[in-house]
Amino acid sequence: MPYYGFGLYGVDYTYYMVVLVALVLGVAAQGYIKSTYRKWSQVDAGIEGTGADVARRMLASGGAGSVGITRVAGSLTDHYDPRDNKLHLSDDNYRGASVASVAVACHEAGHAIQAAKGFGFYRLRTMLVPAVTIAERSWVLVLLAGVFLSISGFVQLAILLFAVSVVFQLVTLPVEIDASRRAVAYLSAHGSGLDERGARAVLTAAALTYVAAALTSIMQLVYLLGRYGGRSND
Question: Which DSSP string corresponds to 169-196?
Answer without folding.
Answer: HHHHHHHHHHHHHHHHHHHHHHS-HHHH
